[in-house]
Structure formats: C-alpha cells, structure tokens
Amino acid sequence: MEEQIKGTLFICATPIGNLEDVSFRLKRILGEADLIAAEDTRTIRKLLGRYDIPNKSIISYHDFSKINRINYITDKLEEGQNVALVSESGMPAIQDPGFKLVNRCIEKDIPLTVIPGPSAAVSALVLSGLPTDSFLFVGFLPRAKSRRKNKLLELAAYPHTLIFYESPKRIETLTQELIQKFGDRKAGLIREITKVYEQSIRGSLSEINARLKVKKVKGEVVLVVGGYRKELIKSYTSEEIAGQLISLLKQGISKKSSLKILLSRYDIDRQKLYNIATKI
Questions:
Q1: Collapsing DSSP states into helix, strand and coil, what is residue 32?
Q2: Which domains occur in the chain, in start order?
Q3: Where are the beta strands (DSSP E) in 75-220?
Q4: pTM, 2 dp
Q5: What are 103-136's pLDDT values in tens digits?
Q6: Across the beta sheet with 9-12, what order do the strands follow?
Q7: Do 247 and 150 contact (CB within 8 A), yes or no?
Q8: Least buried of 110, 191, 208, 235, by fewest C-beta within 10 Å?
C-alpha cells in the first residue's frame, strides 16, 4: 500500500494592526489551505473578508483549547490536509499556544513551514532606537511574586536589549519595578504599532514612568529596555566568583543563567569560570 502523504502546517504571521501588511504568499496560503486554526476566529474572518478570500473551514485554537483540539488538527494533517495556523495577530507560537501544536507536529514528523510577516517584538525593537545587535525577548513576566522577582534578578545583569510585553493597565507598575531592579536605563515604550495612533515614547525609564503618571496609555504596548552596561570587573579572586555563584543559585536562578550573569559582570575566561563552578 502507498504511504499516506501528510499535509503541511503553515505557520502564518498576520497583521498586528494594519490589514495592508499582508504578503502575496500569505493570501495564497490562506486561500489554498484546507483548514485554518485560529486563535480568534473573528479576527481571521475579518482578514479573509478584506481580501475576498473565500470562506474557509475555520476552527478555534487558543490557550484554553484542550488536547483533543491538537489531536484533531494533527489528524487532519496526517490525512493529507494542509492547515494554516494563525494567532490573533503577529507570528504564531511567540508566547502563544501555537507553540504546543508546532511541537506536536515535530513529534509526529508532520511537515511545517513558516509564512514570515509582522512581529510586534521586532518592530518595537527597531522603533526604540536601542541596540539591535543582541536582544532578548522576555514577553510577559510571571504574575506570581516570587517567580517575577527571580526573573527580574536574572535579567538585571543581562547585557542584551530586553523586550517586554505588558497590559496597558500594568505598564506603569512594570516601569516602576524595572527602575527598582535595573536602575534608570534607556527605554522605549511603543504602542499601537502600524495603527493610526502608533506612538513611540523614548527616554529613561523614569521619564517614561512620569509620562505614564500624567497620561495613561491604551492599546497594545511593548516596552524595550536597554541591557546591563557596566565595565567588566577585572580584579577579583576565585573565592569571590564562587561566592557570587552560590548567591545567585540560592536565589533560585539556574546554573546556566548564573554563569551568564557572572560572564556579564567579570572580565573572566569562560573556561576558568566553568572550572570554578565545577568545584562547587
């Protein structure tokens, strides 16, 4: 018997605001797909209507979808149907339930590819004016106090530009937290990217916080913050390095992250640091 030819999962980036940000390829794939798995079915129907793409078979797939929804989609793929995965906006699987579906397809050896397109994180990064040669996407911070505190402690010494997602209702609180944990770094608050009321607020965290106290922001926001910028400490002892490492580990920070933090603080050879770490 001939082996069943599997379908392909198309991971489709969709507009983050302006519906004109659609590629020719995206329109074709959405028109040809046998099934569209959408985080918000209303949003994708609006996009299909804007470009006169015939009504498709659309199912919801979001954070609250149960495992049987993933199984349903992968079953269709294994039957040979092509599926387009779309999030509410931007690139699926970036702090998005699409991650689980992508991994299940990899496990089942189902072909998948990406239809590149808009990304709020990268767009905000380039609009912020902060260094783009090395950056870290943080996304939404944990809500639990202990996990949030540990995450901020871990991020405080990273030399990379940091990209945060946050609700407009909590963005003022986030800037206050970052000032306390990071100091008053350069930052950029970018909101409503590609939309009519797109706005970029640049300056120090304290300057941005002051503006937020005067006027609250609305809509989708991304906060971009400068990385840790301190001259590397050149004078130290192995005992000092070991003590710093133990201190970080006691805070619940992983060994891998702790070593990265120490490399960003001290002018130390990577191998020498690892040798110290193995003795602890």
A1: helix
A2: 9-118 (3.40.1010.10), 121-225 (3.30.950.10), 238-278 (no CATH)
A3: 83-86, 112-115, 135-139, 161-166, 186-191, 199-204
A4: 0.79
A5: 999 999 999 999 999 999 999 999 999 999 999 9
A6: 58-60, 35-38, 83-86, 9-12, 112-115
A7: no
A8: 235
